[in-house]
């Protein structure tokens, strides 16, 4: 429930903050009990430039006496801006109080009534001793309340300092751990750089080996082509040698056939000579008393080689046959030698 000031009461309160008459004004916008356990005071301040507010205190006059309340820490640090909305909350139990019976203190020299004139005496009436004593007593209570609040603030600040020191110690420990981790990361980075350098060196070496292998392959391909050319030449030489060998073999076969024909002619000549000798002997035997032998008798006798001088045609034909035979053998041997050389070259290339 929102509690408004009483009818006819001003909602702007003034407070002198210096002997030369400088005043601070507070305009009350709302005085409300919320949640059943707190009071909220909302308004705007004027003339507060350069002032620093402390923990607000609220003094409320009730039927049971005066109650001094310290603001909850919900709105700490209660920063104030000229003419802007300002709020403070106070703990409260019981019925909603009357704002005419409340005073708000935000600094030792800044104490204002929530409703101006609610507790002021008439301007023409001079305060008596009792009123001055009551005012002094109220100021003393406010000062005691502020001292208590300042002590609580000091304890809170000491606790905050202790927590800050613990936090600083924890942060220093984390910093040391982070520095250790950083050193480990730097070591890993240096090791990674070293590994990268090794990898680059190995890559360069591999590139050089690859280039050397490519060059070697080119040389091997050139050597292969050269060997293939030599092989083709050797094969051609082999084919030529085989052709020459076949030609020599044909010539040898022809020479052998010629030799066989000459030998057959020689045998015929030898038989003809033997018949001639037999006829001669037979003719001579008839005159000398030896039995005569006819050509038929000579044919029936086994053939005996004779060591007599061969006829002229036979003597001259044999050296020619022997010469042809040796020529064929020489050609065949040369062809065989060439064939062996070609085979060796082929085996070397493969």
State the helicity in percent bands.
55-70%
Which structural class do you get from the secondary structure elements?
alpha+beta
Topology order in helix (H) and strand (E) letters: EEEEEEEEHHH
How many strands, which pairing sense, and closed or not: the largest β-sheet?
A: 4 strands, antiparallel
Q: What general form does the structure show? A: rod-shaped
Q: Give the total of beta strands.
A: 8
Q: Helical segment tally? A: 3
Whole-number radius of gyration?
A: 74 Å
Model regions low in confidence, pLDDT < 50 over at least 5 residues = 1-10, 118-126, 305-318
Question: What keywords describe this structure?
Answer:
single chain; four-stranded antiparallel beta sheet; 350 residues; 8 strands; disordered N terminus; alpha+beta
Structure overview:
The protein has 350 residues and is of the alpha+beta class. Helices cover 58% and strands 16% of the residues. The protein contains 3 helices and 8 strands. A hairpin with a 6-residue loop joins strand 1 and strand 2. Helix 1 runs antiparallel to helix 3. The longest helix is centred in the middle third of the chain and has 160 residues, at 129-288. The protein is rod-shaped, with a radius of gyration of 74 Å. The two termini are 113 Å apart. The model is unreliable at 1-10, 118-126 and 305-318 (pLDDT under 50).
Q: Secondary-structure blueprint of this entry?
A:
Layout: E1 12-16, E2 23-34, E3 38-46, E4 57-62, E5 65-70, E6 85-91, E7 102-107, E8 110-113, H1 129-288, H2 295-300, H3 312-349
Antiparallel strand pairs: 1-2, 2-3, 3-6, 4-5, 4-7, 7-8
């Amino acid at each position: 429930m929102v509690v408004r000031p009483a009818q006819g009461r001003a909602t702007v309160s003034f407070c002198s903050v210096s002997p030369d008459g400088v005043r601070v004004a507070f305009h009350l916008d709302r005085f409300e009990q919320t949640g059943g356990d707190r009071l909220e005071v909302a308004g705007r301040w004027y003339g507060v430039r350069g002032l620093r507010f402390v923990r607000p205190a609220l003094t409320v006059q009730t039927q049971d006496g005066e109650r001094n309340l310290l603001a909850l820490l919900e709105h700490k640090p209660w920063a104030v801006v000229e003419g802007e909305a300002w709020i403070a909350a106070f703990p409260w139990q019981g019925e909603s109080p009357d704002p005419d019976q409340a005073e708000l203190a935000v600094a030792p020299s800044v104490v204002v009534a929530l409703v101006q004139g609610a507790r002021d005496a008439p301007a023409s009436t001079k305060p008596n001793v009792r009123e001055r004593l009551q005012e002094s007593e109220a100021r003393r209570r406010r000062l005691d309340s502020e001292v208590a609040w300042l002590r609580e603030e000091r304890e809170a600040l000491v606790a905050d300092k202790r927590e800050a020191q613990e936090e600083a110690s924890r942060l220093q420990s984390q910093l040391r751990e982070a520095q250790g981790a950083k050193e480990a990361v730097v070591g890993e980075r240096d090791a990674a750089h070293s590994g990268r350098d090794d990898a680059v060196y190995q890559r360069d070496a591999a590139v050089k080996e690859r280039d050397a292998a490519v060059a070697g392959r080119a040389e091997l391909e050139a050597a292969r082509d050269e060997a293939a050319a030599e092989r083709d030449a050797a094969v051609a030489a082999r084919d030529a040698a085989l052709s020459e060998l076949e030609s020599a073999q044909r010539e040898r076969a022809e020479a052998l056939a010629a030799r066989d024909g000459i030998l057959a002619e020689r045998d015929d000549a030898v038989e003809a000579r033997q018949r001639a000798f037999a006829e001669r002997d037979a003719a001579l035997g008839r005159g000398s008393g030896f039995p005569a032998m006819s050509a038929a008798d000579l044919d029936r006798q086994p053939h005996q080689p004779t060591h007599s001088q061969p006829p002229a045609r036979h003597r001259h034909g044999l050296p020619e046959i022997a010469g042809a035979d040796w020529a064929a053998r020489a050609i065949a041997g040369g062809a065989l030698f060439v064939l062996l050389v070609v085979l060796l070259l082929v085996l070397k290339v493969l």
